[in-house]
Every structure is written in structure tokens, then in C-alpha cells.
Amino acid sequence: MTNSVDRRTQAAQKRRRLAAAAARVLHEQGIERTTLADIAHEAGVPVGNVYYYFKTKDELVRAALGEHRDRLDELTAGLDRLPAPHDRLRALVETWVSQRETTARYGCPTGTLAAELGKRADDSLHAEAGAVLRRLSDWTAAQFRAWGVPDPDDHARTLVSAHQGMSALTHALRDPSVTTREATRLLHWLDSLRAGPGISP
Amino acid sequence: MTNSVDRRTQAAQKRRRLAAAAARVLHEQGIERTTLADIAHEAGVPVGNVYYYFKTKDELVRAALGEHRDRLDELTAGLDRLPAPHDRLRALVETWVSQRETTARYGCPTGTLAAELGKRADDSLHAEAGAVLRRLSDWTAAQFRAWGVPDPDDHARTLVSAHQGMSALTHALRDPSVTTREATRLLHWLDSLRAGPGISP
Amino acid sequence: MTNSVDRRTQAAQKRRRLAAAAARVLHEQGIERTTLADIAHEAGVPVGNVYYYFKTKDELVRAALGEHRDRLDELTAGLDRLPAPHDRLRALVETWVSQRETTARYGCPTGTLAAELGKRADDSLHAEAGAVLRRLSDWTAAQFRAWGVPDPDDHARTLVSAHQGMSALTHALRDPSVTTREATRLLHWLDSLRAGPGISP
Amino acid sequence: MTNSVDRRTQAAQKRRRLAAAAARVLHEQGIERTTLADIAHEAGVPVGNVYYYFKTKDELVRAALGEHRDRLDELTAGLDRLPAPHDRLRALVETWVSQRETTARYGCPTGTLAAELGKRADDSLHAEAGAVLRRLSDWTAAQFRAWGVPDPDDHARTLVSAHQGMSALTHALRDPSVTTREATRLLHWLDSLRAGPGISP
DNA sequence: GATGAATGAGACTTCATTCAT
DNA sequence: CATGAATGAAGTCTCATTCAT
């Protein structure tokens, strides 16, 4: 019994390791240019073995998106420890700034995956990517709401959109300073909301 | 001589037709999922013939980016006919709105190509995509400058970034209303600049 | 463990089988006129599987050259069992005679491969072919040296050159008797050296 | 009339130019690695035009062999001006020495073409290459005969074989000194025949 | 005859997926 | 479960040859 639990745990760990490897490699190389062998190699798992954990490559992509969602949850969970919603949002923006070098090289993980998946005939994976962005939007709206800002959903959409925009431009121009500057603007905007609603971003 | 000119023109036209087909199909299917046969079929040309005009698939991608650049130039040339820079910028934003359905389905052509190209080891095509975005940014900065807005480059970067962001989100959520709403916000922002500089977006 | 060794052995055997098939077909059809499908078919293996063992066609060519080198080694190892160097060299020449029909049809395996490879821009495979010929030359020189013939390297070069020449001519004229006659001459020459050095071939 | 003759002459010149270009490029790149475009480009002729002079690629190969035969005839015609057969043969060997650098890079033109053609299912071109070698052999035999050496055909075969051998080895080892040394040996051999028959090569 | 363009067969290579042990 | 090996569909690219003007 203990043995079987161990096994189950071990299996779960291997699944996780594969998902994490997939998240990493797919972010860096894109979906279509990444082979299963790349992911297996990154995870230190024999190629043939991958299929015991994921029946198709698409399932690995799905797992990678799940991984990104989990990381987002960890991030927001951390931010939730800050007392003021306003500070949480500022910290979110600062997180983006701290990732600017990676963004310049590989773009936003979820955003670029969504861009690639959005052109498929089959929508299911694309929707999964969209869900991760919506999850961020929902959390952000909750902050605006808690803060008492009117139209919290609109403000959230604007902030997430701004993140996608600055990530895309940072990536396209390979210039981390795009992130720095846009983030500064966003922080000013957040501060301007503090004084009270009325000033549109 | 007339004959040879005709031929040269015809060849150039076919090249252009292939480039246009490539621009369309690559936008809709992404680079890696598009085969040369797809492009050849879209252009109504046998596959083998494509190689008479473009030696590699990458050259076709490059041509597609050139096509997008040309369309951008046509767009801005049209906008330049408007007398006031402020109106040109408003019209730009409204152009984006008019494209919202296509954006919801396939994303911003240049932006999604840049996202896909940015993960390659070889930078040259990615840089080409970045150049198209920078071209838009330069034109935009020129409008802000003509308008007398301070920090025109910063404002231009913000506007282009906003476009990339709203396109990415519109695409990821398959929701054209994202574009509509963000565009509305941008128009307010442009109007607020009219009153005089000082109010940050 | 036994299992894994078995597998490794099996894999090595298949690699060898492919290399042997390549050596055969490349000898008979030449490099450029031989397709991977030809080699796969000769080895009784599906085409796709070939790439599990050899990443490119050139690697198969390299393996074929290795095969020829191995056969040369087996040949000289057999000759080394003869007590007198002089007899070993005579036996070498007689081996050539025994292969005259194949030579008339397809030429010397190493020699014709070298001829084809020598015209490439990239030298690496050509050098490999040259190394096989040099290996024969080295063994031959060792025999002359052991025999006490002066200038053993010169004599070896002459013998190997004679072999290449008679093989080329036998092949070009499709006439095995060229080999027979030139071999007779070479045997006389070897005998003349027996009496003592001094008589140039 | 003059006009038509001019035209016929011009056409013949173009044919010749193409054949010469083919001889050159095929020698340097081998048959299979040379494209019709390569030859057309080398001759300064548009690709489509080649087919008015040669209906297939194989006919161009045949023409290239004819070109090599013509050059051989020019060579022997020049040697025929020397009074003594013995000197003609010495001069022949010295011609080979003078070509050693080209041989090291590309091998003997006729020999390497023969090697490549000899592996085809269809014999006709291969026979053409063999005929060029036999032509050299015939001329050589005539010299030995005029000189009074017995078994002139055997001696001729040996000399031509020696040339093929030293060319092949020079090419395979990319070492022109192979030619120099073997040529020295051949000159000694020719001199030894001068004293009178009896000493076998 | 001359020429740029067209065509289609076929080559090499990659890779997701499956299989046998 | 584990794993090296197997498979075949598909993609990119080349090129001899033909065609239209």
C-alpha cells in the first residue's frame, strides 16, 4: 500500500516534471518548433515514456498551460499577502518589470502561446490559454473592486491588455526598456486612481 | 523591349501575388502550420513554381512581412491626407476598431508573426517584424510631434503597445468587444491630450 | 542487464547491416544515384527507420567507407597469416585478380567512391576515402620493409597506384582481362624484387 | 546565304562553347552534382536555350566527352611533331606532371567521368568514356610499335593504366607529389626499354 | 531560334506516435 | 510501467525538362 502510494506520488512527480519542462521549452521555442524529444530531454525522461503521462503532444501543451496557470496562482497568492489592493497591483506591475529580460527574449509565456494556438482550426487549447489570461484579469478586477475603483472589470481589462502590449513590444523590439517605461506609466496611472476615480487611463 | 518590360512586370506581379497570398495565409495559420502547398494553392500556382520566385520558405515569410509593411504605408499615406495630426491618430485607432473581427480570429498580423519569429535561434526575420512595428511607431511619433505633444516617442510607444495589447487580448479571448472598449479609452486619452499636455495616459 | 546488452548488440547489428547495405549499393550505383530508399530496401528496413541510425545520407556514406576499411582490415589480417612478406604481397595481387569481374562491372569500391567524393566542396568524406587507401598503402609498405626492400613507401605507393590504375581501366573498358594481365606484370615485378633491389618496375 | 552560313557558324560556336563549359564543370563537380543551370551559366547561355543544342543532359555529357577526346587529339597531334617515339612518350608523361595540381583537385577528367558513368544501368555513355581511354592507348601502342618495342599493346595498356592509377591516387590523397614520383618511375621505365626489350616493367 | 517561366516527379529529412520486449 | 526502436505521413526543396511568347 505504501508502495503503491509511493508509486502514485512518483508518477505524479514525473508528470509534473514533464509539465514544467514543457512549459519552459514551449515558452522558449514555441509549440511547433518544439519536438516531444526536446521536452523529454529537458525533463530527463526517455521519449517513449512520455506517452504514459500524456497521450498526445497537445496534452503536453495543455499541461504547460496548466503550469503557467499554477504559477500565476502562486504569484497572486503571494500578492494577496499585501494588505492594500493598490499595493498588490503595484507589486504585480513590478513583477512584470523583474521579468523584462526574459520577456525581451521569449515574450510573455501565456501571451505567445495564445498567439500560436489562436490560429488553429481546433479551439480547445486556445481557449485554455485565454482562460489563464482571464484568470489574471479576474484577480485584477477583484483588486480594483476591493479598492473601490468603479468599473473594476474595465480597469482590469486595461491592465492586462497593457501587460500583453508591453510584453509583445518588448519582445518584438528585443528591448527590455520598453517594459520599464510602460511599467512606469502604469504605476503613475495606478497612483492617479488612488486619488479617486474620474481620471481615465 | 516592350515585351521584356511586360514580362518583368508580369513576373513582379506574380511575385507580389505570392507575397500577398503568403501574407494572408501566414496570418491565418501561423508560420509553422502553413505549408508551401497552402501558399501555392492560395495563390493558384503549382508548388514547384513558388521556388522560382522564392528560394526558401523563409524568403516567403520575409516577403509577407514586406507586404504588411506596404499595407501599413498605404494606411498611413491615407491618414496623412487628414489635415490635423490629432485626427490622423483618431482615425488610426478607428481603423483598428474596423479590423476587430479579423483580429479576434487571427490576431494582429505583424504582432503574431513577431511572436512566432521571436523564438527562433536566427534573429533576422524577427528583426524584420520588429521593424514594421517600429515603422508604425515612428509615424505615430511624427504625429504627436506635429501636434505639439511633449515626449512624442513615449506617447507613440504607448499607443503602439496599446494596440498590441488590445489585439492580443481580443485574439486570446476571441472577443472583438475588447478592441471596441480599449479603443474608446484610447480615443478619450487622445482627446485629453488635446487640452494640453500633462495628463499621463 | 543481459537484456540491455542484447538490445545494444541488436542495434549495433542493425547499424552494421545498414552500413553493409550502403557499402554494397553505393559501390554498385554510386553515391548520387543512390537514394536512401535504395539502401533501406537493400537492408530490408523502412526508410524512416534509417534515420534512427544515421542522421544524414552523408553519415551513411561515411559508414560505408568504414565498412570498406573493415573489409580491408580483414583481408590484410588474413594475409598476415602467411609467413613471408613476399607471399603476402603476391596474395594481395591475386585477391585483386579474383575480384576482376566485380571490378569490371563496378570498379574499385574505395577508388570510385573517392573519385565521386573528391569533387565536393566539403572535404571531410573525401579524406575518409583517402584514409582507406592510405591504410592499404601503409600495410603494403610494412610488407616491403619486413622483406628488406629499400624505399618501402615508394614501392607501396607504386603498388597501390597500380591497383587503382588497373581497376579504373578494367572498369572503363569493362574488361576483366586488363586486371589479369596487369596483375601478371605486377607478380613478375614482385619476383624481380626478390632477387634483390635495383630493378625499377 | 552568307547570313545563313554565319548563323550556322554561330550556332556551331555556341554548341562548342556549351560543350567546353560542360567539360569544365563536369570535371570539377561531377555529373550528378552539376545542374544544367551550372553549365548554362558557365557558358553564358540562358537555361532554356540549352535545349536547342542538346536535347538532354546526357547529350551534354556526351559532348563533354567529345571535348575531352578532341583535346586528347590535339595533345597527341602536338606530340607527333617530335621525331622519336620514345621522346613522344616521355613528353606525354611530362604533360601529366604539368597537370598534377588540377589532377590533385579534380582527378583525371576522363577517368573520373568513366568512374561515375560506369555505374549506370545504361552503358552507352560509359562506353564513350572508355573509347577516349582506348584512343590514348591506341596512340601509345603506335608509339611503342614504331619504336620497335615488342608487345606494344601490352606496354600501352600498362602506361595508360599507370596514368589512371597515379591520377586516382593523386586525387584521393590530394597530393600532387604522387604524380611527380610515379612519373619519375615511368620515365625510368621508358628509358630502360630504350636499351632494348627484355626487361619487364 | 531565344528566353523567362512553369511543372511535376522525386529526393532528403523530421517527427508524432506506436510497438515489442 | 519503462524504453529503445520502428513507422509512415508529410514537409521542404531541387532540377531536368517543357512551354508560351
From TrEMBL, chains A, B, C, D:
Residues 12-72 form the HTH tetR-type domain. SUPFAM superfamilies: Homeodomain-like, Tetracyclin repressor-like, C-terminal domain. Residues 35-54 bind DNA. Keywords: DNA-binding, Transcription, Transcription regulation. InterPro entries: Homeodomain-like_sf, HTH_TetR, Tet_transcr_reg_TetR-rel_C_sf, YxaF_TetR_C. The keyword DNA-binding applies. It comes from the Bacteria. Pfam families: TetR_C_13_2, TetR_N. Transmembrane segments: none annotated. This is TetR family transcriptional regulator.
